[in-house]
Design goal:
mainly alpha, 5 helices, 2 strands, 5% strand, elongated
Length: 116
């Protein structure tokens, strides 16, 4: 049994959870170190023309997502952006008037609330 933390914040992991955690960390590690806009053009890729052709085809199909997706039917105006920003931080929208969207979905964590 693997234990992390102490007291109320102690997490216990059995054998299955440890394996899952290890796999998750491996995937994240590979994702962080292996992500790029294009596939690698190392010596092994250049040596095999079939692999090079496949890499070329993948680069044309799997492009990075655009920074924005404008909608011509509902254009984003500065007034709409200001309204959205104001509502995101507004606490009066919650039942007890003490929570805003930003209370859980922190923008410095990309809006992720870290809940299951």
């Amino acid at each position: 049994m693997l234990r992390i933390g102490q007291g109320e914040r102690e997490f216990r992991f059995g054998r299955g959870a440890r394996s899952l955690l290890a796999c998750g960390l491996l995937v994240v590690g590979l994702g962080v170190t292996g992500c790029s806009d294009t596939l690698s053009d190392d010596a092994s890729t250049a040596a095999d023309p079939a692999v090079a052709a496949l890499a070329e085809r993948a680069n044309t199909m799997l492009k990075p997502l655009p920074a924005s997706a404008p909608n011509p039917e509902n254009e984003g105006t500065p007034a709409k952006l200001d309204l959205g920003r104001m509502l995101y931080y507004e606490t009066r929208l919650s039942k007890n008037h003490d929570l805003s969207c930003n209370s859980c979905h922190l923008l410095d964590a990309y809006g992720v609330d870290n809940e299951p």
